[in-house]
Amino acid sequence: MLEKLLSFSRHHKMALLMLLDALLLPLAMWSAVVLRLGGNWDPKLDPYLWIFAVPPLWVLPIFIKLGLYRAVLKFLDDRIVYTVFVGVSLSVLVLMAVILMAGIGPFPRTAIIIFWVFAMAYIGGSRFLLRGVVRRIDALDAPRRPVIIYGAGRAGLQLMVALQEGREYRPMAFVDDNPQLWGRTFRGLMVHDPKTIAELVDDTDAGLILLAMPSASRGRHRQILEQLETLHVPIKRLPGMADLVSGEVRVDELREVEIDDLLGRDPVPPRGELLAANIRGKVVMVTGAGGSIGSELCRQIVKQQPVRIVLFELTEFALYSIDQELAQLAPAVERLPVLGTVTDLARLTSVMQAFAVETVYHAAAYKHVPMVEHNPIAGIVNNAFGTDSCAQAAEAAGVATFVLISTDKAVRPTNVMGATKRLAELALQARHARGSATRFVMVRFGNVLGSSGSVVPLFKRQIAAGGPVTLTHPDITRYFMTIPEAAQLVIQAGAMGQGGDVFVLDMGEPVKIIDLARRMVHLSGLEVRDEQHPHGDIEIRCTGLRPGEKLYEELLIGDGVLATEHPRIMRAQEYHLPAAELDGHLAALGAACQALDAPRAFALLQGVVHEFRAAEATADWVSQATRA
């Protein structure tokens, strides 16, 4: 019956509520009079029985005006009490006026006060009763997933209210670090000690833990996630407080736990003057603008209000995508999407001169280690000679600052990609040594989270597909940093360079990849399948190191490192080659690449990058096919 009533149209439901109030109001007045008279009836009131039927005539219009019937029963909140209070109070004043004007002397005056109490109870109580019934029916119609909320602060309470009004999750309990909250109850949910969370999961059959601590640091998030990992229950979290305050997301918009939550490294707030130094009021160009790092650089750059930004990119769709995104992000900034390759010196020079570029961020590069390892000529041409071409064009166009995005793989490289990036550094150092008017700055950092080819999105896809999760070696470790933090540090480092500088970003502690894989499996609510758990869900499989791959990455070649004014940026003191010597190496290497002589190019690369220790399995696929 109730389900049929709930299926009525909105207007029919409003009419039914009005009919209900039209019955409850006379009942409230009758109850008030009978209570006032001690349960007896005064026959003198018989001629005035009409007074019990007329209150709806003025009360219902008052309620309509106050919007009482526009409220949706399922989502009624405490404000409905105020609406009923105002409506009933006005109706009592009208009732008093009617009684006085009609001269109803036998009507007990104190019954009017009692009528106010009964009307409040009947009208308001009926609404909350109906709300409970509607929510109960809704809950039975769509079974909700039981969840535990970690965090009983303001965000946690708001999340609880939002979830109780929804149809997806059913909050079962709170967990909070504050002992003063333990044992307290909010809307029937008790706050518990985090030490009891394993028992709570079993008792409530919770299939999800919601982390509602948007103001907590990443370090605290990491501690909590490490504590919850053993439960093998999926975890979602509220967005950061900055997103909630800005209105970009709502408190009920939950997100998957991200890898930066697992790393637990709190970013250092960027320094505004360093971010703006090479950008504000200037013409800025980004090569590789559609890539992972290049696109984030563009997002950070447009926030600093450049005169214009030149987006230089080889891939048409990537260029289109970042151009469209920036159009939404910063419509006031002039954008110039330019197709081209960094190996085309004439194209680069004409672009930089035509738009009077003042600052260049050179992010274009082939970076996937196994790909470049078997395509060494392409890697050398794009990463090393492409960088040198960009630098030459920058000098010719009078560019003031040129910032190279380098990598930790350039340190004692064991692969072609790392060796080409170190050669790119050497080329810029040589240009600085010649007394170039352009200020060349190089910035090294490790892996960035979420970049194309990164291990993290690969693990996510493999876990979603049921495994196996593949990594190359159980002992392999890597440094990680978020893309926005890396881009901000690159911009700040570029502002600090005097010329020829090699900056190293503080990447925090290295992460063991197999531990990262295990945590990602566990926090997805699954079990790793191994010898101890043969019936687990996801297997972690080691496939062996790939050609040129290191177990451990480094950020410095030598031991010399100097602090800078920024706590996350250090200045490396690295060797560089004399310009004349490097020119000879580049000429020979360029000739080998021009002749597509991969073995000779590879040997020459080893000769110019002294610390390059090539992998034995490295081989150019094209050369192999040609010899075959």
Description:
- This protein has 628 residues and is α/β, with parallel strands linked by helices.
- Helix content is 47%, strand content 15%.
- It is built from 23 helices and 23 strands.
- It has a 9-stranded mixed sheet, sandwiched between helices.
- The longest helix is centred in the first third of the chain and has 32 residues, at 110-141.
- It starts with a helix and ends with a helix.
- Mean pLDDT is 81; it is low at 241-252.
- Name of the CATH class of the largest domain: Alpha Beta
Share of residues in strands: 5-15%
Put simply, the count of helices is 23
What is the architecture of the largest domain at the second tier of CATH? Answer: 3-Layer(aba) Sandwich
Q: Which spans of ≥5 residues are poorly predicted at pLDDT below 50?
A: 241-252
From the N-terminal CA to the C-terminal CA, the straight-line distance is 81 Å
User: Could you say how many structural domains there are in total?
Assistant: 3
Basic shape: elongated
What share of residues is helical?
40-55%
Largest sheet: 9 strands, mixed
Transmembrane segments: 14-35, 47-68, 80-104, 110-130
Protein name: Polysaccharide biosynthesis protein
Pfam family, one: Polysacc_synt_2
Domain Polysaccharide biosynthesis protein CapD-like: 284-573
Write the layout of secondary structure elements.
Blueprint: H1 2-6, H2 10-36, H3 55-66, H4 79-102, H5 110-141, E1 145-150, H6 154-164, E2 169-175, E3 185-186, E4 189-192, H7 197-204, E5 208-211, H8 218-229, E6 235-237, H9 241-246, E7 255-256, H10 259-263, H11 272-277, E8 283-287, H12 292-302, E9 308-313, H13 316-329, E10 334-339, H14 345-354, E11 359-362, H15 369-373, H16 376-397, E12 401-405, H17 416-433, E13 439-444, E14 447-449, H18 455-464, E15 469-471, E16 477-478, E17 480-482, H19 483-496, E18 501-505, E19 511-512, H20 513-522, E20 528-529, E21 538-542, E22 561-563, E23 569-572, H21 579-594, H22 598-608, H23 621-627
Parallel strand pairs: 1-2, 1-5, 2-4, 5-6, 8-9, 8-11, 9-10, 11-12, 12-13, 13-18, 14-17, 15-21, 20-21
Antiparallel strand pairs: 3-4, 6-7, 16-19, 18-23, 22-23
Keywords: Membrane, Transmembrane, Transmembrane helix
Protein name: Polysaccharide biosynthesis protein
Domain Polysaccharide biosynthesis protein CapD-like: 284-573
